[in-house]
Design goal:
Largest sheet: 7 strands, parallel
Structural class: alpha/beta
CATH architecture of the largest domain: 3-Layer(aba) Sandwich
Number of helices: 14
Keywords: Glycosyltransferase, Transferase
Order of helices and strands: EHEEHEHEHHEHEEHEHEHEHEHEHHH
CATH class of the largest domain: Alpha Beta
Distance between the termini: 25 Å
Pfam families: Glyco_transf_4, Glycos_transf_1
GO molecular function: glycosyltransferase activity
Oligomer: single chain
Number of strands: 13
Shape: globular
Number of domains: 2
Radius of gyration: 21 Å
InterPro entries: Glyco_trans_1, Glyco_trans_4-like_N
């Protein structure tokens, strides 16, 4: 199979099909670039435990190298399978989506495919984990190292001594025609119910804000995970069990209704790169409250919300209270949020990917 423009792209993930932001971005970008005439392959090194289908009718090809946890011999066989797959592609680019993938497969990529390494986290998160050391060791040898914001790219260039940094934000899969009227007394939190999302802090801040606001607001949490019972107990402890609604997993094509029924979105995570929920919510005209934990968050919020110092639950409470009390402030920030979200429209992000390919090929 030869691409219309003669170029092949291979997106390689540790796991391409688990429900998660990185996987969703990969499939969105892969489908978009395939629709522009590239021959695109999405490769998962491992089979997802609970595979999630992101694109109903994908324009790209999908591969899984290992259907079960590989031992040493199976891993070697998988490496040979991956090398054969990549060797059959026409010249182009291999996009490795995480430090684990870069360290695992970089040496398997044939010379006719330029190697690009992505990082979907923030510099702050990388610095607190093994990621920074791995990025420092492996990403500088690639054709390009791609991060989620200009701030993150600059910090990796300075502190990981990378000569090849670039930044491309996460895209919005769609652009809505309708926006939220911002009249429903509902705060929205979206994400896995896991410790890193720190929904306990959001519940605490919401409980204090709800007591300061005369109208009865609700906090709707969309997502599932192991922290459900602990978070429900936390809401009960703060006396807001009747106002914190655990919605479970909501299908992607139903999220438009969730955004239009909310009046603001809150992100209380311990670490994030460039969370899709902020861009999606902003495209519906929702203002946001978020902890200021990464360049990607600062880029996504801009002047369409309120940034709070990391871990400052009292500050988060104050920010929530101010937006819950003021429809005018919600409208002003929501208008700015939608204007800022235009930077993340899919066509614009795909243009940035194509500009990067042109830059590398020079």
């Amino acid at each position: 199979m030869i691409a219309a423009n003669g170029l092949s792209l291979a997106f390689i993930c540790l796991d391409a099909d688990t429900l998660g932001g990185m996987q969703r971005v990969t499939h969105t970008v892969a489908h978009g670039l395939a629709s522009r005439g590239y021959e695109v392959h999405v490769v998962g090194l491992h089979q997802a435990t609970h595979p999630f289908r992101y694109i109903r009718t994908p324009a790209y090809r999908h591969h899984v190298i290992h259907r079960s946890t590989p031992g040493r011999l199976m891993r070697r066989a998988g490496d040979r399978t991956l090398k054969r797959l990549l060797s059959r592609l026409s010249p182009g680019y291999t996009i490795m989506t995480s430090p684990s993938v870069v360290s695992r497969v970089s040496d398997l990529v044939p010379p006719h495919l330029h190697r690009i390494g992505q990082y979907h986290g923030s510099y702050e998160h990388a610095r607190g984990s093994w990621h920074l050391g791995s990025i420092r060791r492996h990403y500088g040898h690639l054709a390009q190292a791609v991060f989620l914001s200009d701030d993150d790219a600059r910090r990796f260039a300075d502190h990981a001594l990378l000569p090849n940094t670039h930044h491309i934000p996460n895209p919005l899969a769609t652009w809505p025609c309708n926006v939220s009227p911002l009249t429903t007394r509902r705060v929205l939190g979206v994400g896995r119910l896991e410790g890193v999302k720190r929904f306990d802090r959001l519940i605490t801040a919401f409980a204090h804000a709800a007591r300061a606001v005369p109208d009865p607001w609700e906090l709707h949490l969309i997502g599932d995970g192991t922290e459900h019972d602990r978070l429900a107990a936390h809401a009960a402890h703060h006396g807001v069990s009747d106002r914190v609604v655990f919605r479970g997993r909501v299908a992607g094509d139903e999220m438009a209704g969730e955004y239009t029924k909310a009046s603001l979105v809150a992100v209380s995570s311990e670490h994030e790169g460039h969370p899709l929920v902020l861009g999606e919510a902003a495209s519906y005209g929702l203002p946001s409250v978020a902890f200021d934990i990464s360049g990607g968050i600062r880029t996504a919020v801009a002047d369409g919300g309120i940034l709070v110092p990391p871990g400052d639950v009292e500050g988060f409470t104050t920010a929530l209270t101010s937006l819950m009390l003021s429809p005018a402030k919600r409208r002003a920030l929501g208008h700015s949020a939608r204007l800022n979200a235009r930077h993340f429209r899919l066509d614009q992000v795909l243009d940035e990917w194509e500009q990067l390919f042109t830059h590398i090929a020079r």
